[in-house]
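Please, structure for the following, as tokens.
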Amino acid sequence: MRTRKLLTVILTTMLLFLLTACKKNNVTTNNGDISDSAIVINRIDSVLIQYLTISNIKKQLRNIPDTSADSYFNLYVKELSPSLTNKGEYPFFFKIQDKVATELDVKNGKNPFHFILSSTDNKLDILYMSPDGDKYVITEVSKLTKVTESDFIIRDSIFKKNIYAKMNRIKMNLVGSDPQHQGDSSYGNTTDIIIPYDTFKSYVPNNGDSALTLFPGIISDQKTNSTGKSKKFHFTLIMAIYSIDSPAPTIYYDDFCLKPPGC
């Protein structure tokens, strides 16, 4: 069953923070959550002002097909309790500005896109690793930002000690309690995600009114890699494009190539 309330909050937030051609003005409650008040989005490049209410967004969400993406995202929410504020270790989504997505596309060429799970300010984050091995911050920035090797070591240490340790515990608990006896406890949770070139290219925004979003998820059905190793209960990403002119986000989900267990 789709958790419409959670996706409603996400869609609202994405429309506020991701559309680079927009100004934002939202009403929040005392605990930082977005209220049921109307949200005003003012597009800089026109006089168009759209008023979006929670009920209107729910109507848009009905256009999203039921897919495993719902199950993946719901399991992530259940197990890792993501936060919309800066206080939590696990985010609801990773937002990538269209300029950054375009820079990624140019720098990467036609190679598969390699993302590394890491940490920024003690929160789960994803870094991009270029074909020559350089690493870049891609979320919450207006351009690709290179990470020095010393900075990466610090980020990786924090990630492995805190964030990844919890992700591993959750994976092992899910494997151990799975009535279908699927999954594999002989290796850890995901550290790297590799997305095929054609897939990523399809989701690079091509105008200022759309934005690339990567939603976290936990694989809830039996998926295996090319050698038959299970990826069930592994962390993954769900790709989506949000557009101010579209009735609903375009969602692409997959387990992609996850390491471990490998492609």
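Residues 57 and 159 are 34 Å apart (CA to CA). The longest strand covers residues 210-218.
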